[in-house]
Amino acid sequence: MSDPYGILMCGVGGQGLVVLSRVLGTACATEGLRAVTGEQHGLSQRSGSVSIHFRIGEGAFSPLIPLGTAEVIAGLEALETLRYVEYLRKGGTVLLSTLVMHPVTETAARIKSPAIPYWDVEKVTERLTAIETRPVPVDCRGIAARSGAAVAENMVLLGALAALPGFPVGRPSIEEAINRVFAGAVEANLEAFRQGTREAVPGF
Amino acid sequence: MGKTSLLDLEPGRAFLMCNEVIARAAVHAGVGIYAGYPGSPTVEILESMLEMASGAGFSAEISTNEKVALETAAGAAMAGVRAMVSMKSVGLNVASDTFFSLGYTGVEAGLVLVVADDPHAHSSQSEQDGRPYAPAALVPMLEPSGPADAWDVVLAAFETSERFRVPVIVRTVTRVNHQSGVVEVRRVVPGRRAKVHWPHGPARFVTVGASARAFHKAALERTEEVRRSFEASPLNTVERRGSRVGVIASASCGGHAREALRITGGEASLLTLATAWPMPENLVAEFLSGLDRVVVVEELSPFLEDMVIRVAGRENLSVEIAGKHSGHFSPALEYNADIVADALARVLRIPAPVEPARAAETAAVAAEGLPSRPPTFCPGCPHRASINILRTALRGIPHVVSSDIGCYSMAPLEPLVWGDSVLAMGASAGVACGLARVLEEKVVAIIGDSTFFHAGMPAVANAAYHGIDFVLVLLDNGVTAMTGQQLHPGTPEEQQPPGSRRIAPEEVLRALGAGSVTIVDPYDRKSALPLVRQVLAGSGFRAIVFRRGCALHSDRNKRRRGERIPVSEVSREACRSFLTCIRDFACPAISLDAEGKAAISPDLCDGCLECAALCPNSAIAHRKEASE
Known about the structure:
Chain A is an alpha/beta fold. Chain A has helices spanning about 15-30, 80-85, 105-110, 120-130, 140-145, 155-160, 170-180, 185-200, and strands spanning about 5-10, 35-40, 50-55, 70-75, 90-95, 135-140.
């Protein structure tokens, strides 16, 4: 039995992580793939950290990704990717939105010690590189805005995911899933997804 | 979620959350009534039932609390109509009085209680293990493992309930409720709905004295019959391998156990138990025979393990049992495949995987100094303003805050750190009754509107009755906000569903005998502050209502109506970096810019102007140009 393909999705409450998961899962259903998730969003709308363990493959029994085995971390916010990096396999990929949302705790600490700089994308990618993972920053916000739906950052990230070599779910199934899941703004979301596949990971 | 109603999904493969599968199965089982009170991780069951109710022709309602929800469902089931209720772990504590009696009297038609425990206390006040409620009340309990078998488990629960005339618990954990997966969808065929006639003679459900003793005896006999029926339940799975080591897993831990076997490559037979109580003892005895060692995998207390130990003892089996008593597992926190693999490797005497430890160590180095991101008050949240007004009014006055369950439970956490106790739904006023009797400090109790209707009213009556000296602060945002802004009795009239009537919390407070009831708007700091100071200076039992709609809820309604949500900005010239808009306020939309001045993120700002009211330099105002 092959190892499941693990995607650790993360972000901040309200960024549309659950919808991202729902679209990918619906595409898995179309393709007849086994998929299972463990979702942490009980307090999702309170600007807190949220995560979804997304697993594809016959060996995916547990809803949680075993430590050090995820193929990719997909973060809708840059800092959050570091919070879940223990799930990533050695040499795995981190797709991170270039968006940084400063937690209230970080700003509170900076008022007390103004010399401490804010975290930024560069610091996150440095840390990720130092532990031999492959960070791929994606301008989800900019790409979403250009495709006509500013809130479609999640679909841009999904596009970037789908463009990874060896990604187990086909783009046509994902596009079909976007059609099925979204009640409105289907075209803009499709466009965001397509832009994500084209622009997000120019290296591939 | 999505365009299609859960009711109308076509047979075939679909990606669904376990909570959605549970709800669909209940409709297919023909429930006439669903009732519940929102609590994570069961909220999606409640919302799915509300979504399907009119299409399927059953009644679905948000009750004032779990006890009332259970009683509502029980009334229907007593009369002969199938019913379901769902609640989080601690909800059953609230409903337990009625629950125990129902274990005696039983029901006429199927009555299923979905009760969700929360190992790891992701969104609860405890890691309470609700399973011991089943043997304590003689109520059978089933457990699904996720979306794949939840349909079958819920249908079996209704069948068991009706066959043995007893309520049945479907017990879940957060990782089961909030697990989605690709499942084979079956068509939902709702039952026929018509009023029925009371099918019983007098006193059928009266349990007291002689009838209670008779009910108890019958319930004990019934339990043995249920146990026998569980022996052959297809919901339990046995996978025999040629090994003298076995694994017994609760259904919710079955996935972790299977995965651990895969990861370690270990050879062990596996029994997963969906019939959690009464345990099918013969099945377990048969599984144990021929084994030298068995690993019992279940989260929280050694509920299964103790029953396995009893069976092994009764059958004189010399099998080593690895579980909590042996130190292989902890009764705290939730499990995953790594934890189970580690224990399994020890029992199988094979090397444990090393990757998890390496990954965890590397990650700890990489994430060193990363700021935490706890859930916090949303931009525009009226609670943030209310709390700030209260703290300002209480400056210099020694005080103790008895708080409650809701979004405002976050106030005692970082970064605000204001508040002294949060115990249980409605406990704020009750605890304040005791505090006020013994403390020198001023006592303030804080309760939300939904929590007030849920379990706060008896304590308020007590405080008013005894004339206890404290201030009750009722944070009235019009919805049950924490769980997703559900409606409750105090929700504004225009948002109430047809047939529902608003009950004003201030009228209830007055009727319950509060010495004074002062209503303020937290967005109007200037007017609110002197009023709050005045009430705080008084004595006796008095109440302040902070009224302003939940920002998330209000913004959603505004967007629906096509109204523009204004955005605030900080004037670079006027800001003198006093940072009163950040200190003790902590809005996620406000951070510091390169010059150390406050900056508002237009993507997050709700335009509430709460921060503007705090700025001594009047540096904050709505942005002039039109924005989305």
